[in-house]
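Could you help me review a protein record that somebody else here produced? Do not assume that whoever made the record got everything right. The record follows directly below this note.
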Amino acid sequence: MANACLFLGFSRPATGKESESMALFNEAVGQFEGLSKEGWFESFEVIGLTPHCGVLTGFLLLRGERAKLDELRRTDAFERLSMRFARAFEGYGVVPGVTLEGMRKVYERNPDLFK
């Protein structure tokens, strides 16, 4: 069961990179579909956000095992894709996190921190 996640958030396309950013986004979705089949993570979602008072307009959320997601982040292919996203989208960032299952494991390992 997935105990971790990887959040890839972004804002609008960088000025002058609108066409490139959409092509890159579609390429990334295809790559993540392939990586999921290869077992790098259990599932992923693509989320587009409606207008709000913030700058985040969408994100990709990968769910899987923490060690595999950490390993994925260090691959040349992911690093390259991430650098390309940073050029094509404003406000791009990658944030590791834990799922509810992961939070339960943290609690089990550190019960004294939750008293």
In short: Strands lie at 4-10, 43-48, 58-64, 93-98. The helical segments are 18-37, 66-73, 76-88, 100-109. Residues 18-37 form the longest helix (20 residues).
